[in-house]
Specification:
The protein has 376 residues and is α/β, with parallel strands linked by helices. It has 2 domains: 233 residues, 3-Layer(aba) Sandwich (Aspartate Aminotransferase, domain 2); 127 residues, Aspartate Aminotransferase, domain 1, CATH 3.90.1150.10. 38% of the residues lie in helices and 11% in strands. It has 12 helices and 10 strands. The protein has an 8-stranded mixed sheet, sandwiched between helices. Strands 8-10 form a two-stranded antiparallel sheet. The protein binds pyridoxal-5'-phosphate. Pyridoxal-5'-phosphate binds next to helix 4 and helix 5.
Length: 376
C-alpha cells in the first residue's frame, strides 16, 4: 500500500509553468501593443483556429455558450422551432437552445458512448424541427456521418457542441466537416483553455460566419454602423494565450489518450463500465468517466476523495432532472431517456490532464482498484 497522495483533478498551474516563457511573452506583447479588443492577436488566432479545424471561418467569442446560441440565431432558429439534443450534457447545451428562444427536444444517449443515440433522432423530428445539436461528450465525437445523413433527409441544420472535444475526429470525418457550425469553449478547464473564459464558432458557411461576427459586436461589421446585436468578443489577451496553447493541443491529446490507456488497462475486469472508443475514432479524453453498476457512485466518490483522489461528477443531474425544469421554457422528452439518466446516476470522472505524473496515475489506479475490490 502506498503513502497517501493528493491527486488533483486539474493541472492548470502546471500547464502554465511548462509554457511560462511563451505565455508571459504573449501577454506582454499584447499589453505593449495597446490593442486589446478586436486587435491583431484575435485576428491571428482566428486564422490559426480556422486552419487547425480546416474550416473557412473561425470567430472568437467570449464563451462556449455564446458559440452555441449565436449560430442558432444566425440561422434564424428561434421561437416556434425545435432543436434535438441530449439531456446528459453540461447545462449550457440546452441553455443555448433556450437563449435562442427555441424548444429543446431531448432524445436518449447511446449507452456505450454516452453520445446522442442516432437511432432515436428520427422519432423526434416534427415539422417544427430545425436542427440537430449533437454534443461530443467527454472527448469523443458523436456519429456525425449518420447525423448528417438524417439532417439531409429532413433538411435540417446541424450544430456541433465541441466544447469538450477539440482535436477529436471520427473514423472518416473531422469536426466541422459535416455540420453547419461548431461551437467550442476555451474556459480554463477545457482541453484548449485560456486563463478565464472564451469560445469560438468555426464554420464553412459564409452567411453564418458573417452573422455571428456581426452579432458578437453590437450588430456592427463597420465602425459606427449597427443593427441589433450583443457583446461577445474574445479579448486579445485570451486570443494570444490560446495561440500559444494551440500549438500543443495534439501532444496534449496524445498524452490524455496515453493516460486513458493506462486507466483502461488497469481497470479492465473490474465491475466498472469503462469509456468505449468507437472504432477509428480519436477520443481525446477531456474526461475519463467510468460508471458504477451497483448504484454506489456516491460511495465511490467519497472513498476516492477521502484517499486524496479528486474524482468528480460529469454530470450528476440530467437536464430534465434539474430542479424546476423547464423553467417556463419549451422542452420535450421523446421516448425513454433511461440511458442518459443511468449515466447521470452512475458517472465518476477520474483525474485527467496531460501533466499528471506517473505516481499520480498509479495512485489513482491503486485506489480505484481498492474500491472495486471491496465494493463493486
Ligand atoms: C458540453 C458543453 N457545452 C457547452 C459548454 C459551455 O461553455 P462555456 O462554459 O465556455 O460557456 C461547456 C463547458 O463549459 C460544455 O462542457
Amino acid at each position: 500500500m502506498s503513502v497517501k497522495m493528493q491527486v488533483s483533478f486539474y493541472g492548470h498551474q502546471r500547464q502554465y509553468h511548462n509554457l511560462k516563457a511563451d505565455i508571459d511573452k504573449a501577454i506582454s506583447d499584447v499589453l505593449e501593443s495597446g490593442a486589446y479588443v478586436m486587435g491583431p492577436a484575435l485576428e491571428r488566432f482566428e486564422v490559426e483556429l480556422a486552419e487547425y479545424f480546416g474550416t473557412k471561418y473561425a470567430i472568437g467569442l467570449n464563451s462556449g455558450t455564446d458559440a452555441l446560441w449565436l449560430p442558432l440565431l444566425a440561422m434564424g432558429i428561434g421561437a416556434g422551432d425545435e432543436v434535438i439534443t441530449v439531456p446528459n450534457t453540461f447545462f449550457a447545451t440546452a441553455e443555448a437552445i433556450w437563449i435562442a428562444g427555441a424548444k429543446a427536444v431531448f432524445v436518449d444517449s447511446d449507452p456505450k458512448t454516452n453520445n446522442i443515440d442516432v437511432t432515436k433522432i428520427e422519432a423526434a423530428i416534427t415539422p417544427r424541427t430545425k436542427a440537430i445539436f449533437p454534443v461530443h461528450l467527454y472527448g469523443q465525437c458523436a456519429e456525425m456521418d449518420k447525423i448528417r445523413a438524417i439532417a439531409d433527409q429532413y433538411n435540417l441544420k446541424v450544430i456541433e457542441d465541441c466544447a469538450q472535444s477539440i482535436d477529436a475526429h471520427g473514423d472518416t470525418f473531422k469536426i466541422g466537416e459535416l455540420s453547419d457550425g461548431v461551437g467550442t469553449s476555451f474556459i480554463i478547464q477545457k482541453n484548449l483553455g485560456t486563463f478565464g473564459d472564451g469560445g469560438a464558432l468555426v464554420t464553412n458557411d459564409e452567411h453564418i460566419a458573417r452573422e455571428v461576427k456581426r452579432l458578437r459586436n453590437h450588430g456592427s461589421l463597420k465602425r459606427s454602423m449597427h443593427s441589433f446585436g450583443f457583446n461577445s468578443r474574445l479579448d486579445d489577451l485570451h486570443a494570444a494565450i490560446l495561440s500559444v496553447k494551440l500549438k500543443h493541443i495534439t501532444a496534449w491529446s496524445d498524452r490524455r489518450r496515453e493516460i486513458a490507456g493506462m486507466y483502461t488497462n488497469a481497470l479492465q475486469g473490474t465491475n466498472l463500465k469503462l469509456p468505449y472508443e468507437l472504432p477509428g475514432y480519436r477520443h481525446v479524453y477531456h474526461l475519463y468517466v467510468v460508471e458504477t453498476r451497483n448504484n454506489n457512485r456516491d460511495a465511490m466518490i467519497s472513498f476516492l476523495n477521502a484517499e486524496g483522489v479528486d474524482a468528480k461528477l460529469h454530470y450528476p443531474i440530467a437536464i430534465h432532472q434539474q430542479e424546476g425544469y423547464p423553467w417556463g421554457k419549451e422542452a420535450q422528452i421523446v421516448g425513454s431517456v433511461a440511458n442518459s439518466e443511468w449515466n447521470a446516476a452512475n458517472c465518476v470522472s477520474l483525474p485527467m490532464f496531460p501533466e499528471l505524473t506517473q505516481d499520480e496515475i498509479d495512485y489513482t489506479i491503486e485506489k480505484t482498484l481498492e474500491w472495486c475490490k471491496n465494493n463493486a
